[in-house]
Amino acid sequence: xxxxxxxxxxxxxxxxxxxxxxxxxxxxxxxxxxxxxxxxxxxxxxxxxxxxxxxxxxxxxxxxxxxxxxxxxxxxxxxxxxxxxxxxxxxxxxxxxxxxxxxxxxxxxxxxxxxxxxxxxxxxxxxxxxxxxxxxxxxxxxxxxxxx
Amino acid sequence: xxxxxxxxxxxxxxxxxxxxxxxxxxxxxxxxxxxxxxxxxxxxxxxxxxxxxxxxxxxxxxxxxxxxxxxxxxxxxxxxxxxxxxxxxxxxxxxxxxxxxxxxxxxxxxxxxxxxxxxxxxxxxxxxxxxxxxxxxxxxxxxxxxxxxxxxxxxxxxxxxxxxxxxxxxxxxxxxxxxxxxxxxxxxxxxxxxxxxxxxxxxxxxxxxxxxxxxxxxxxxxxxxxxxxxxxxxxxxxxxxxxxxxxxxxxxxxxxxxxxxxxxxxxxxxxxxxxxxxxxxxxxxxx
Lengths: 148, 287
Prior knowledge:
By secondary structure, chain A is of the alpha/beta class. Chain A has 5 helices and 5 strands, in the order βαββαββααα.
């Protein structure tokens, strides 16, 4: 169950490219837009009491390492007041288009996050994987703020 | 200046029962919580299950929310998959309701008046989809009659329309009746010029007078298709016309569980996927 916020920039297209609409998942995901200013490229929020999976923290750690190794900034908040897992994607990351004008980068990032947190990606493979091209994203200056 | 259109949320708490492989009823309170806040819980009688999806302005989203609850429940308690789920009017000795919730306040429309519109276009149509024997049993127990507490219950968020039996037998029937409910209520709120007709009579419900309602169906349908929101939900609502025209009930040929697509999904949760597959489309184009 992956829900994309329909009102945020490019998320409808990203949702359609990611093919995650009918994915069967253990957790409930909400993907929404983070505004540009002062935010990391990705903000993952959940509540440690409400997410039940043995190795969840290990997966979050591996995911964070993977993103940082590919120069994508990420913040994780594990005591958020949310029922499922909220994933905020910053505007510039949502705006990266390939030469066919498709947001395949954001789509790949969201798929990686969800498959990883669902325990469907091998953690060793994740940590060793290098993206062929990583677009240059703006570095955040201060801690994340939520915004639509 | 044109009057602002009123939109509203639709919710529901339809019921069903579960039978084991010997055909005995499995008490809901033995499997799920009896607290009211849970998304799948036990009804007040402790025996029937009640689904409590999040409401939505879009009735199709409501159906999707119900599906999500079934899927989540089956992950969390796989034993659900071994049971036979049954909706409809009456099963395992218990009447089953398909209450629909409307997020409209009494300043927007008088609730009893709104419920009467629903009786004439939703309640009577749902009668045509019920099985006669089950329908009679439910009415014998005092439920599903368009009067008093059996018809409507005021709630802090609006009101609950309680006449329909449980339409939960398949997502298609659920979508059809929830969309029809939305269409009729939208018309009641936003079209003061609509010419309402009275099709529902108390004894049609009490005595399950299928033939009397069937006689009126062409006129009921003729009114429905002129309602403002009908075109938007036509693909879903037209199932009702098909079922009634072919004298079919709301029970699908397959089981309720299968019609909702709730099967053992463990492989979907555990099958591994490689990073190359996730990133193949991105890599192909950027390489």
